[in-house]
Amino acid sequence: MIRFLLKGLIRDRHRSLFPVMVVTVGVTVAILMQTFMHGVMDDMVRSNAKLDTGHLKVTTLGYREIARQMPNDLSISGIDRFLRGLETDYPRLEWTTRIKFGGILDIPDEAGETRSQGPAIGLAIDLLSEKTREIKRLQLAEALVRGRLPADAGEVLISDEFAHRLGAEIGETATLITSTAQGGMAVHNFVIAGTVRFGMAALDRNTVIADITDMQYVLDMEGSASEVLGFFPNLVYDDRQAEEIVREFNDRHSGGGEDDFLPVMQTLRMQNNLGEYLDLAAFRVAIILVTFFAVMSIVLWNAGLMAGIRRYGEIGVRLAIGESKHQVYWRLLAESFLVGLTGSAIGTALGLAVSYYMQEVGIDISGMLQGSSILMGNIMRAHITPASYYLGFIPGLAATFFGSAVSGIGIFRRQTAQLFKELEA
Amino acid sequence: MGNQADRSAGEAAPAKNGALITTSGLVKQFPTGGYLFTALNGINLLIDRGEFTGLVGPSGSGKTTLLNIIGALDYPSSGSAVVLGSDTKHLNHKQSARLRNHHIGFIFQTYNLLPVYTVYENVEFPLLLLGMEADRRRRAVTQALEWVGLTDRAQQRPAQLSGGESQRVAVARAMVKKPEIVLADEPTANLDAENSHNILRMMVELNTELETTFIFATHDEKVIRYLRRRITLRDGRVVEDREMEPDYTT
User: Fold this and answer.
1) What one-character DSSP code corresponds to residue A50?
2) Does A324 contact B74 at a Cβ distance shorter than 8 Å?
């Protein structure tokens, strides 16, 4: 009987092709939406984590409140001891110190007069120590466009776009004009070792990357750092564990105190509204899947009704020949199961194939990010997750089954007694 | 056309080889626009194994309603219709389906073949419902197609067949499970004279060979000439029930 059903399905395109196409398209779209949402959010989270938030971030309470203003006067002092404490207490995580700063980068001419200048956003990281993992973490070698990575004190990297705008060349002097942590004016000459491009509009515009020891000296912050970032192994964020660590750390170190210099830890989700973004993304994926399920169910329900009308005669004959209403109903459901299975399998394969392509190639959205301060890549990529394998498949199968189950109820309402009249009509 | 042994209207006919179908005081009413329309009114019939019987009468006389009740497609409002020992009034949907599946074949005016299946598969379908094993099924289908002379068209689709051929497939489908009863509602209405006679001759042969009881609902003279018993209905009552000498000449 299964073979008989299969033959009918394969030969009758109205019964198979249209519903299979609907399910295939629906499942493909659902998977694409899911992988894209996940890819974009994943990229955003990863970029934010690496460049700004870490998986965990420790600052002083006062710094946290006005972090956007980069208040380096509220930095953590005794940073070496503090860092060792963190490494002892949480040895699974990699800890690193950073300083953010702002200023003006001035490119002088041969006479020492300003040739060009522009506002700069600076990031001071551990560039030169032997144990540093920052170069790998920020993929600076991959981001390098011209020149080389800094090898000595006094060397900096600047974003390639910034260098072009300023007309700065590798090996030239760049003067950073900024303010110290105490509010005094600071002017320091650096040598441009190389230029970098991260593929993120917010970073590529006017970034300066300097060694943290240099900047501690320039900003008069010896022994201090404004931020300490913690990273889970392999850069895989674990929200539950992060929250546990934050709770434990804050209970121990700040405990509800209000002193501006108390150290306070935050998870990635607590910063830059990332928690809201992540929740919103998850909510959107859920909405997409529910909508997809509802729309497909309605479409397939109607397809089932249309097929039911078209197959009214056939069903009548089958009832007359001796198939019971239950048997007809269950066989319709079996057909829908086969249709759902086929459509969902093709749709999943197609969705994953396109997602894979989009994961590898992506879509260039740099034009849309001009002037944006969001830390996300210029290439929007999909990201296939284990959920991608079933998030379209199961609703695809269920919607087909549900649509047929609802439309097939008409079989039970049919008066068998009318068969002869109907069939002669 | 012979017309001997006039049976009194409304009285059950005597059994010959054992009654297959018995109706007693059979009444069927339908609610129509606030009142009950009586389609069958006190039908008493006894149909024996191997009969070649026709329910004859004008439209609205109750032929199809009676065929529905005999085929367990409908229930009597009162009275009883006992088919192969089962009172159709007390059968649920599943039991009715089982009765039709095992013992009754249907032939329709418009053939009603399943269009996506081949001739072979159309004839095979009732056997699939019976859960018959593949070997027996193949033999039965081949035999049924031989009966109707369509072995060479086994792999054709219904759309590729003529009207006469389609109805022969319908006959093969009805006969393949060798049912005790075949119910045929105006089986020749869409056929020309030659095809009608071919189909009817074939049915007579099957009736003789397999002792299958054929019951027709018809007002087609071509069919009536082949009947051995004619039950005339008018306004839901049997007005005449007589045995006849069939006329097989074309």
Assistant:
1) I
2) no
pLDDT in tens, A364-380: 776 666 655 555 666 77
Alpha-carbon Rg for chain A in angstroms: 31
For residues B13 and B244, is the Cβ–Cβ distance under 8 A? no
Q: Which residue has the higher pLDDT, B154 or A46?
A: B154
CB atoms under 10 Å from CB of A136, counted, come to 10
Q: Inform me whether the C-beta atom of residue A131 falls under 8 Å from chain B C-beta atoms.
A: no
In degrees rounded to 5, what are phi and psi of residue A372?
-80, 145
Q: Which ipTM score applies to this complex?
A: 0.80
Kindly report the number of other CB atoms within 10 A of residue B229's CB atom: 20
User: Alpha carbon of B231 to those of A22, B43, B177, B222, B243: distances in Å?
Assistant: 54, 11, 27, 16, 9
Contacts of B128 in chain A (CB under 8 A): 1, 4
Cross-chain residue pair A325–B109, CB shorter than 8 Å: no
Name which of A321, A322, A423 is nearest B110 (Cβ-Cβ).
A423
Give the E-state strand segments of B114-208 in sequence order.
181-185
A235: CB partners within 8 A, 6+ apart: A46, A49, A50, A55, A137
Cβ of B108 under 8 Å from any chain A Cβ? yes
Nearest alpha-carbon partner for A60 in A270, A257, A241: A257
**Residue A77 bridge partners (DSSP):** A224
Report whether CATH 2.60.40.1090 matches the domain B49-74+94-243.
no
Residue ranges per structural domain of chain B: 49-74+94-243
B126 interface with A at CB cutoff 8 Å? yes
Contact A421 B94 (CB under 8 A): no
How is residue A201 written in tokens?
A: 């509009």
- Where is A80: in which H helix or E strand? helix A79-89
Reported as a single tens digit per residue, the pLDDT across B112-149 is: 899 999 999 999 999 998 999 999 999 999 999 998 88
Is any Cβ of chain A less than 8 angstroms from the Cβ of B89?
Answer: no
* Degrees to nearest 5, angle at CA B50 with B154 and B235: 100
**Among A125, A80, A89, A31, which Cα is nearest to A343's?**
A31
Question: Cα(B112)–Cα(A406) distance, rounded to whole angstroms?
Answer: 26
Q: What is the DSSP string of A278-344?
A: HHHHHHHHHHHHHHHHHHHHHHHHHHHHHHHHHTHHHHHHHHHHT--HHHHHHHHHHHHHHHHHHHH
Cβ neighbours for B211, distance < 8 A, ≥ 6 positions apart = B17, B49, B50
Structure tokens at A13: 């395109």
Kindly report, residue by residue over A7-24, the tens digit of the pLDDT: 888 888 888 888 889 889
